[in-house]
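Limitations
The structure tokens in this dataset are predictions for the assembled complex, not deposited experimental models. Users should treat interface geometry with appropriate caution, especially where small molecules or nucleic acid strands are included. An illustrative entry is reproduced here so readers can see what is and is not provided.
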Amino acid sequence: MTFDAEKALLPTGMCDGLPPEAAKEAACVERLMTAFAAWGYARVKPPLFEFEDSLLSGSGRTMATHAFRFADPASGRMLALRPDMTLQVARIASTRLKTAPRPLRLGYAGQIVRIKGSQLRPERQFGQVGAELIGVATPDADAEVILMAIESLAGIGVGALSVDLGMPTLVPAFCDDMQIAEAHRHDLRLALDRKDSAAVHALKDRIGADSARVLGAMLTATGPIERTLDALRALDLPEKAALERDRLETVARIVAAGAPDLEITADPVENRGFEYHSGVTFAFFSRAAGAELGRGGRYRTDDANGGEAATGLTLYMDTILTMMPPPPETKRIFLPAGTARDAARTLRTQGWQTISDLDGGGADHPDFTSSERETGTTADKARHMGCSHFWLNGTAVEI
Amino acid sequence: MTFDAEKALLPTGMCDGLPPEAAKEAACVERLMTAFAAWGYARVKPPLFEFEDSLLSGSGRTMATHAFRFADPASGRMLALRPDMTLQVARIASTRLKTAPRPLRLGYAGQIVRIKGSQLRPERQFGQVGAELIGVATPDADAEVILMAIESLAGIGVGALSVDLGMPTLVPAFCDDMQIAEAHRHDLRLALDRKDSAAVHALKDRIGADSARVLGAMLTATGPIERTLDALRALDLPEKAALERDRLETVARIVAAGAPDLEITADPVENRGFEYHSGVTFAFFSRAAGAELGRGGRYRTDDANGGEAATGLTLYMDTILTMMPPPPETKRIFLPAGTARDAARTLRTQGWQTISDLDGGGADHPDFTSSERETGTTADKARHMGCSHFWLNGTAVEI
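Predicted assembly:
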């Protein structure tokens, strides 16, 4: 291994963003943040690390195993690199922006770091872009973040979008209604998470035959939203579960009205990744990709006063970037030595990328004895530098 | 201390970027990166951390005491959070972009973290924006990065700019010419760094009376560039030192021609912060601020093959942000419940920030029994949400 090859080795899951991808990513992030700002979501910028016992407490505990930790010589306390920004934004809402008018709309974009990648996503550093809507619990609020994400993704050129709605509170509400003992709920959850109808049916002696039948029916009530809602309505759900179903239906109707072309599906018993959510959840997909583009849902912020109703979304920039159409080609022009500064500046304001010749030379250079020779040499240099044009006698000449 | 107050406590030197500053910072960074791109500087995005022995080796050793370090469970090796991005960009140039055509122009923007703030800058997390020009050693290259920085800063509204040029290689070249022993150079350096003419004079028995006289004259040859160049020319410098002076003069002349309104000063013996530079250095100021806006200079990249000639610049976003004119006021409009989605979307595409009412209500809400009542309530809500307008019967009504 040469010294260079060794230097090129980055830790697992870390990478160098190179041209043109790094610029494409940054442009895409800024366009999403601009779209969020147009919906009133004001940007916040939480720090890269915080005290471990603040960042990883409360709802942050689920993130504790994902965070790099290290000692702070300044305070003697342990610090943690943020594995997620959602909780930082909720912290800002409940502390520094405690007295800002509600509903509070916040957007954010930044880098997060996790101690371990997954098989599916070996990366350990991610670009996270998201938005949180804090202090309002209405179905219109759930719908707003979904519609904003859809409009924003479509705006940057990600097409064929779909959203999959979830209601992780439906099964717990049903269990409460039916007074299913805590002791049975864990096994029920496992069976539902595995989408295992037989295992749900097998629980009938513990949770009652009726409950097992209804839960088995919920398990298969997935797919297009109308099919899900028809199936749930057919179940004649008890009181608390019916309220959860109604909420899902109301949010789905507002979203459908706001985005008539959007494909809406639902999986009313889906729970994985949504363990701490308290209402409608959602995941975005594109038929062109297959992979998830982002997700989010309703939750409560933690704080001493009981917290606030909130909903929010996170977009996965790595997946979204693979979906983006290629950027328009940049006009790139080579400027021979001696090109007037004003001409160069004007070209830049007209949208050209200017590449100045820095090797010296020009009219008085021995290499350039005739204009043919100059043109030839300039064209070669321009081509070498990846330019589409070069500048000659006040004109952009195409190569 | 309440729980909330405790949660609000961030580690020393870390802070939450709040609205509207966080958005202003991001916009400013992107405008600078767009300006750099127009000069052909392609964006790269190095990772937040690397292996300690790669990030902090070679020229990175000077940064070693500034970096947070922690163990990587994946490799068992030590990692370091980047205290600076310049060396990462030089690494990318000499590894992943080794075969890209030269000169190689790269730009970057990102967050850096240092273990300890200074008295002047207590922050430990900074936004760094910079550009590197690699593989070319001409005076035109030195001038390009200076002129690009000036044009880019002026483009985002930072006015009254000045640049202070340095030539940290001038004194070492003179010492070589005069065969001043290494043993004396350290004391000479200290005297020059302290701008202590008497101490330079006092070295005359060790370095020779002529050398002491010339170095003393260099020490006072600071100020407007013409004054510096006149003073240096009057010194009749020996061969190597004369080449360094000529280089400084050539770069200054190209910069002055490219930016006739720019105030150019020079301090030919300045060395502090430029210990590893190998040619013309520069620091940007604004007469409106006093504080330094950024700096850079010529250096050599490290690599197994002897490295490459390079020059680069770093801008200090915290100082630059304090100089920025306030952003234009955003038109922010409150949309009562029931506002058509298409109307809302159209307003957003017209540059409005739309704030939807999520509290329900609307024409059929018992609170809104007459249009007067609706207007009054809507106006109150709009004001509460910081809006300048609200939407009524298809029109934007100013509050």
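Some entries come with short summary sentences. For this one: Chain B touches chain A through 101 residues (CB under 8 Å).
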